[in-house]
Amino acid sequence: MRVIDASRFGEIMEQWKKDCLEANDQQSADVIADVILQLDDMPTLTPPNEWVSVGDEIPSDDDDGLEFFCMTNATGKCGGVLPMEWEVATIRGKTVRRWKWRSRISPWAVTHWMKRPAPPGENNNVPTKATNEPLSLEQLREMEGEPVWIVDVGPHKWYGPGWAIVDRDNCLVRTVKNWNPVFFERYGERWIAYRRPPEGEVDGK
Q1: Secondary structure E strands in the chain
Q2: From CA 32, how far away is CA 26, in angstroms rounded?
Q3: At how many degrees (to 10) do helices 26-41 and 6-22 cross?
Q4: Helix (H/G/I), strand (E/B), else coil: 78
Q5: Which residues of 105-115 are buried (b: 16+ CB within 10 A; e: fewer)?
Q6: Which of 181, 187, 63 is nearest to 135 (CA)?
Q7: For a designed S-S bond to 160, which of 67, 90, 151, 204 qualifies (C-beta 3.0 to 4.6 A apart)?
Q8: Domain coordinates of the chain in residue numbers?
């Protein structure tokens, strides 16, 4: 599936309808008008998780207190990808917007940020039956710096459930909750990973 600019497509269709009317082709104009109506009724898909440059945009004030995945200038930590909290505070009468790491002001500069993926549900546009099979180790190795949802295999609670960041260079992922390392060599034996929480799992809680 390829996401397109529906607004731009609608403008093109309107122009085609206008051209048909000018050519006295009422039948074609009616067909195009019907397509435009159906286009307006189509749901807006949740955009894929993408990194946003802080030079282009920062989280809104409504995102105060929410947690994001951030690219930073930190070294030796998953290439600098860390979970950060966005804070909007009033200090001495001035509004301050900043990133926090473990409830403290971040000592690192943030270059890019990404909202945490939404799990399937009725209140978002992620299909409830979208494929969410366990990732293979090969797939995991290709997801450097990306968030994954990890769960334990068997009765023991070794690592999950919860979000983690892939650190391919060190052959591990790091849990967002406490930044503990979870090594690839245990994959499939003690833990597995998904692109998002499986149905019934609570997102990050």
Answers
A1: 52-53, 67-72, 81-91, 94-101, 104-105, 110-115, 147-152, 162-167, 172-175, 181-183, 191-194
A2: 10
A3: 160
A4: helix
A5: ebebebebbbb
A6: 187
A7: 151
A8: 6-41, 52-115, 137-194
Two tokens at 178? 């406490």
Determine contact, residues 116/176, Cβ cutoff 8 Å. Answer: no
d(CA 90, CA 194): 39
The answer to whether 111 and 73 are in contact (CB under 8 A) is yes
User: What is the DSSP-derived secondary structure letter of residue 73?
Assistant: S
Among the residues of 77-146, which ranges form H helices?
A: 137-141
Nearest Cα to Cα of residue 182 among 142, 139, 131, 137: 137
Q: How far, in Å, CA of 150 to CA of 195, rounded?
A: 9
User: d(Cα 96, Cα 205) in Å, to the nearest integer?
Assistant: 28
Residues 6+ apart with CB under 8 A from 4: none
Q: What tens digit of pLDDT does each residue of 98-134 get? A: 999 888 898 889 999 988 765 555 455 554 555 788 9
